[in-house]
Each structure stands twice: as structure tokens, then as C-alpha cells.
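Thread: quick sanity check before group meeting

JM: Hey all, I'm pulling together slides for Thursday and realized we never actually wrote out the predicted structure for the chain we discussed last week. Dropping the sequence here so it's in one place. If anyone has concerns about the input, flag it before I start.
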Amino acid sequence: MNSILILSVFDIRSDPRTRRLIKAINKDYHVTVLSRGVSDISNITHIPIPIQKRPSYFKIAVSLCFRMLGRHRAFLRNDLVEEAVSCVNLSAYDLIYTCDLSFLPSILEKKVHAKLVFDAREYYPLQFEDRWIWRWLYYTPKSHFCRHYLSQADCVLTVSQGLADKYQYEFGITCELVYSYPDFNDLEVAVVSPDSIRLVHHGACHPNREIGILLDVVAALDERYSLDLYLVPTDKRYFKEICKRVDSMKSIRIKKPVPFDEIIPTLNDYDVGLFFAPPATFNLKHCLPNKLFEFIQARIMVATGPLPDCSEIVRSNSLGLVSENFVAKDIAKQLSHMSASQISQHKESADAVAHKMSFSSSKLKILGLFEALLEKSS
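JM (edit): ok, ran it. Output follows.
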């Protein structure tokens, strides 16, 4: 039985994409996971990475010197990652999977015969391009890592066609498209009441998600519409601003986030899932967020903005509404023109593609890619 090593800087308990991958392969391969936190998945070996401590001012100064000198690997070096990787005999594995650029130099130096699979969940040179300091510090080093290290991977996965096209254009890297489909949920399509249209949004509460647009949309709708927000306060100041606005709005409630395994069953009680984050960055423009596929799996209609990758999936499968822009009044006008019967039809369309857009489809592709790579190395 072949051995696979999964390297992640995340806690796999809160990383659904890696979590699903591990569950897909742990019966057919010996799986070792090196990640933060602890593992609650059986039949694997888990090696914890310590939590990163805040660097000292001296270390920050040294790192900036490396940046000014163009020593990109030294600048992006993560001591905890390097230490963790040094504790693992990379030559003992047949395939190594990671989604973090900082692992790549060490893996490529020490892996010997192992095949390297990289999961590009963002276009990393522009990951936080909305912050000028990040652009100034990280754009060039991240581009260097993609050009010199990522290009050596045996297989690169990514989450949307827009990201795949960008990696191909900038670095000549061909990516395999693996959507972040959730597990299949056997759910019924809930009946839509014409007098009570239930809207929902869930996920991170961060300024670049523009939750305020959703509040303005509902404010422009009539009393038939209500909105529940299941928000994770990733930006506490912005979360407080949203809470303050919601306090004066009778038709909107902020609810506590539910455990990961309960997200889709909870969404099933609603009629329309909302996602209207403007394309403030390249990655937002070409995102295919987990929530999009969770809406579909929950058998509810999708309402989203004119983001190219999102809108293609919604339109091609008749899953709901794609707005003309991100102006709240215009979105509200389009929503208000949809009858309960039309919403029901879109919910039925979601039910029709629920099997196709579940992780079972992604699992087949991942296993096929892994098998092909391992056959080449044997």
C-alpha cells in the first residue's frame, strides 16, 4: 500500500477541503497528516505543528532585510514549518500533498522519488492585494515561489477556471480543476411560502465580503422577506458594525454559527442563499466559495453577483439569480420580481444536480489523479 503525506498549516478540523480529501484516501493508502491542531479522523497518523508565535521585532527586521535583498526564500521562511518538515522523512512517502507555498522548497529538496501535488486554492501572488503593504512585501516573493517551485509540482489542483487560467497565463502551469463540492446530503426540497421568503447567508464577517450590501437589499424588499445571518466574526470591529445595523432591522437576525456538519441541513430550511461580495480582488472575482455549493446541496436557490465563475455555474444549471451589478436596490428589484413558483423551480434544479455537485464527483477525480501519478513513479 502506497504512503501519502499531507502537509497543511491549517487545523484540519476546520479545513473542509483537506478533511474531505483525507477521508477519501485513508482507506486505500497509508496517510500521514502534518498540520496544526489535533485530528479527529481515524486510520491516519497525525503529527501536530505548533501554533505560530508572534515574531520578535528583531526577527521582523531581519526578514525585511531579506526582502530588500531579494532573498525570497529566506523572507518567506516559516521556522515552524521548516522544523516540522525536518522531523518527517519525506523520502519514505510515495506522494506528498500540500496547499501552502512555504512547504515547497523543503519538499522539493528532500522528497527524492515522491510525487508532489499542490492544491492552489488562491492565486497566491494576489492573495491579499487589497492591502498595499502586502502587495509591496509579498507580490514579488510569492510570484518567485510560483515560478521556481510551484512549476516543479507533478500536479497542481485549483478551485475555479479563473484561477486555472491565471496560473497558465502567468507561469505556464496547467491546473486540474477540482471543485470544493461538499458531501452529498439526502434532503428534500422545502416548500416555498409566497408570504414568507426566507433568505440566508453564512460565513466570514469581513469587510471585503460586504455584508452591508445584504442588509441594504433586505431593507429595499417588502415585509415578505427575511434574512438570517450565520456569521463568523473574523473581523470583530466590522462584526460589531453589522450587529449595530441589524439591531434596528426587524426582518434580519444574526444567529450563532452552527457546527460544520450542520451547515447544509440548517440551510435546507431556507429558500434563497445570498452571496454578493464585489470583485475587490482577483481572488474574489474568481472565487467559487464553499457556500455556493452548500446552497446547492441544501436544495435552495442561489442569488449571486456577476462574478464570472459563480455566474457560469448558476446560469448553466438554472440555479437562481445572477444580478446585473452589486447595487442593493437593483438586486432587490430582481429578487422581488421572482415568484414563489420560480424560486421553487430553482430549488428543484439544485436538487437535480446535488449528486453531480457532491464530493463523490471530486473524489473520483482526485483518486484517478493520484493513481496515475503513483503508477508513473512505480
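AS: nice. Residues 198 and 270 are 5 Å apart (CA to CA). DSSP finds 16 helices and 13 strands in the chain.
JM: adding both to the slides.
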